[in-house]
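FAQ

Q: What does a record look like?
A: Structure on top, sequence underneath. For example:
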């Protein structure tokens, strides 16, 4: 296969220009930019074989396949919301070739047999479905899982996402073990002690609705604790879906002290504020909640200066019936895989906050670095995992391949459309065709 006349953008190798990508046997065989090459040299580099597939990509960007380190595919236990197959299809449509599933399934991914089920189901899809295991048994926050056995069985990291850990000494032991195993550990930072109603920021909108909500203090207090424990242990710690201005500043400070702290931001937290709850209701209910404009801009500033290294979706499918419940009864979370890249282009690149190369870096290179993955690059010899997208094409969000549709972005006009996703040298999504 040859991807022809694309705008090749590969932050890992500093490539940014028009050229071709040659794919052979599922690997990148050659990548070259046209600059400085004669036409005869280009034809020779292509080395086209009889019957070889040629993808005409003029006007499109070709970048490393996107990597999402924070998805909930609800399998096992909640497959009426999503399953690994439909989640992978949504990922492919969004340009993702690798995803990392969270552990808050039913049963929780706290034993090797449950982890192996997730990984085996993932192997049935044409993208790379990886998984984190739970830090504590049954997410109880009291007894460590067998982290060594889980890593040996294929866990790429550990997480408490869904039920934050309250015991600082327990967190320290978990970080020490993660450091010993050379794997990242990811934390959902919201202390329930400060929260009366989750999913909505304690602020102007919650007051209008007569709810107390979740103050930024709930997030900031745990970020401060875990940053200091990370500094003490030397563990690689990922602060998940950061949403508060003080939280961003705490991460910035800890990194300056030398802590191996990573942070991820979601498209909804850099796009929306608490006012979205008044417009979209439960479709804007999420943990941590959408906060103030000051918080949103602080998240963007963190993305700009590198404090926040990763963009992740926290793809969280729920059924329509669940989201139609009263606000305090509905579950938190939105889907995000199919809109993530376009929101990054529309809200960050289009408004001058990030360059396209910086956006791609936060959606491919940096996630691969955190999880020690041989991905996020178009280097010769690497797996041929690519996303092709039209950076200036406008489209309206209308329908999803995910089982769920709980998104406040339905009906939005966005810029930047995924045209094709290639994983292992095979087309797994093409615009206008059903995935897989």
């Amino acid at each position: 296969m040859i991807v022809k006349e694309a705008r090749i953008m590969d932050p890992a190798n500093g490539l940014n220009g028009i050229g071709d990508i040659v794919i052979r046997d599922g690997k990148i065989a050659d990548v070259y930019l046209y600059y400085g090459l004669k036409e005869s040299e280009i034809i020779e580099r292509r080395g086209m074989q009889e019957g070889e597939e040629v993808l005409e990509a003029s006007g499109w960007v070709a970048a490393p396949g996107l990597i999402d380190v924070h998805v909930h595919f609800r399998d096992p236990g909640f497959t009426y919301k999503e399953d690994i197959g439909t989640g992978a299809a949504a990922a492919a449509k969004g340009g993702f070739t690798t995803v990392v599933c969270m552990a808050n399934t039913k049963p929780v991914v706290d034993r090797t047999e449950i982890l192996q089920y997730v990984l085996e189901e993932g192997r049935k899809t044409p993208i790379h479905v990886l998984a984190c295991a739970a830090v504590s048994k049954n997410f109880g926050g009291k007894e460590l899982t067998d982290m060594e056995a889980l890593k040996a069985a294929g866990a790429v990291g550990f997480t408490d996402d869904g039920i934050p850990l309250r015991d600082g000494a327990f967190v320290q032991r978990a970080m020490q073990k993660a450091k010993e195993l050379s794997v990242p550990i990811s934390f959902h930072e919201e202390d329930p002690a400060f929260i009366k109603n989750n999913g909505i920021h304690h602020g102007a909108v919650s007051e209008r609705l007569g709810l107390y909500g979740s103050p930024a203090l709930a997030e900031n207090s745990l970020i401060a604790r875990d940053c200091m424990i990370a500094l003490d242990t030397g563990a690689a710690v990922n602060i998940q879906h950061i949403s508060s201005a003080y939280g961003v500043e705490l991460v910035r400070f800890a990194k300056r002290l030398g802590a191996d702290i990573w942070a991820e931001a979601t498209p909804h937290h850099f796009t929306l504020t608490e006012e979205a709850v008044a417009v979209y209701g439960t479709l804007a209910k999420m943990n941590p909640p959408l906060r103030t404009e000051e918080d949103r801009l602080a998240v963007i500033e963190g993305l700009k200066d590198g404090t926040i290294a990763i963009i992740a979706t926290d793809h969280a499918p729920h059924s329509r019936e669940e989201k139609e419940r009263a606000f305090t009864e509905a579950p938190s979370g939105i889907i995000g895989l199919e809109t993530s890249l376009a929101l990054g282009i529309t809200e960050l690149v289009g408004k001058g906050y990030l360059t396209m190369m910086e956006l791609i870096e936060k959606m491919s290179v940096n996630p691969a670095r955190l999880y020690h993955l041989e991905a996020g690059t178009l280097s010769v010899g690497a797996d041929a995992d690519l996303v092709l997208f039209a950076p200036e094409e406008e489209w309206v969000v209308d329908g999803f391949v995910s089982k769920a549709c709980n998104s406040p972005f339905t009906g939005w006009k966005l810029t930047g459309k995924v045209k094709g996703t290639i994983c292992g040298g095979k087309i797994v999504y093409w615009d206008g065709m059903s995935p897989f």
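Q: Is there anything notable about this one?
A: The two ends are 18 Å apart (CA to CA).
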